[in-house]
Amino acid sequence: MRLPFNDNRPPWDRPFDMRRVLVWWSITALLALFWSFTGMWLYDLLT
């Protein structure tokens, strides 16, 4: 958690930055897809 008076942050490190939000959303979506596919594959493999 950052201090509120720290204003000399780079542009990609400010809160509510759409690029950072989209990057993190895409990373979590890709991880969720990967884990769902590996989970289905392991389920088919083990049963």
From TrEMBL:
Keywords: Membrane, Transmembrane, Transmembrane helix. The chain crosses the membrane at residues 21-43. The keyword Transmembrane applies. This is Uncharacterized protein. It comes from Fulvimarina pelagi HTCC2506.
